[in-house]
Specification:
about 325 residues; five-stranded parallel beta sheet; alpha/beta; two-stranded antiparallel sheet
């Protein structure tokens, strides 16, 4: 049975997100569901990949979210010549002091946007692994904690592959969600043109703090998830492994990601319990990058979203 404090926390989370969304929509037209899923990932302590063609506001969404929560924000443009030290930092010799001083890299921010992550070499990409998984980095033998909350938002172009290094499955799995950012509608594009001055002014005010986000995360595992819903999550994950077009399906980490994402979404909806629709709503974003298709399926034009849709149709909710 839920307590009054848990109900209060759920209502507070819903109110916080409403305030954040209002601020973000001062400069971002549309994309409400994408913003919702990014915020859910932040609450769950996860990282996201934003995939979309250039010019659909991927960078602006990340920056606006950070500004509306009063979090530090940094942007790293990934290029083939980028080195790990350019991300995490290094020790630099100070001639005046006669000693080495730490120069922290842009990874030391609450929200770190890694633009076009697949353009950097695998060695540089791997520099993110420790930071994403352990929320810490090692520089010169010293381990340094990263700010809390900490989130990596990576962007990818879905159609331009020349000169890129696709992320290995082990690193893709570190991202809680992969969110596709599409083109705006006709009316949304008109609104962008109408509100261009307001968008350029970028008058976003912070409506909450990083501490509030951390407090919500602490409550997340207290969200009630019925055994039937847990079984539903497990059944979905297992079915992705058994699908005829799948070579590698969802791992236990995928099941945990569904669990945490659905719990965060429930809090954002003002509930202290998860319903099957929460799981359905996050399933595509959580599973899309964790499913590897058979070569034959790819030749036949089958997509991972097709597999997820088949899975959600086959596995009946409780």
């Amino acid at each position: 049975m839920s307590t009054s404090s848990e109900k209060d926390n759920s209502n507070k989370t819903s109110t916080i997100f409403t305030g954040i969304l209002e601020e973000v929509q001062k400069v971002i037209v549309g994309h409400e569901e994408e913003i919702r899923m990014i915020f859910a990932s932040l609450l769950a302590g996860g990282h996201v990949i934003l995939e979309g063609v250039p010019g659909v506001a991927k960078t602006s969404i990340a920056k606006a979210l950070a500004n509306s929560i009063n979090l530090s924000f940094s942007r790293i443009q990934f290029t083939p010549d980028l080195l790990p030290a350019d991300i995490i930092g290094t020790y630099v010799y100070d001639q005046q002091a006669g000693d080495f001083k730490l120069r922290k890299g842009p990874i030391f921010a609450n929200i770190v946007l890694t633009d076009e992550i697949n353009r950097a070499s695998p060695k540089t990409q791997s520099a993110l692994l420790e930071a994403m998984q352990e929320k810490q980095v090692t520089i010169g033998g010293s381990t340094l904690k990263l700010p809390s909350p900490f989130m990596v938002i990576a962007t990818q172009n879905p159609i331009e592959f020349e000169g890129t290094y696709p992320l290995p499955e082990a690193q893709l799995d570190r991202f809680l969600m992969k969110i596709e950012v599409g083109y705006p509608t006709h009316d949304e594009t008109l609104k962008i043109l109408t509100n261009l001055q307001q968008i350029r002014d970028w008058k976003i005010k912070a409506t909450t703090t990083g501490k509030d986000i951390f407090d919500i995360f602490e409550y997340l595992l207290k969200v009630h998830v019925d055994d039937t819903v847990k079984s539903y999550i497990v059944d979905i994950t297992e079915e992705t492994r058994n699908h005829q077009h799948v070579r590698i399906g969802g791992s236990p980490r995928a099941a945990i990601a569904l669990f945490m994402s659905a719990s965060a979404l429930a809090r954002m909806e003002g509930r202290e319990y998860v319903i099957p629709d929460d799981v359905k709503r996050v399933s595509t974003h959580v599973l899309n990058h964790r499913i590897i298709l058979n070569p034959e399926a790819e030749l036949d034009g089958v997509k991972t979203t097709d597999v997820i849709q088949d899975t959600m149709t086959k596995i009946k909710p409780p």
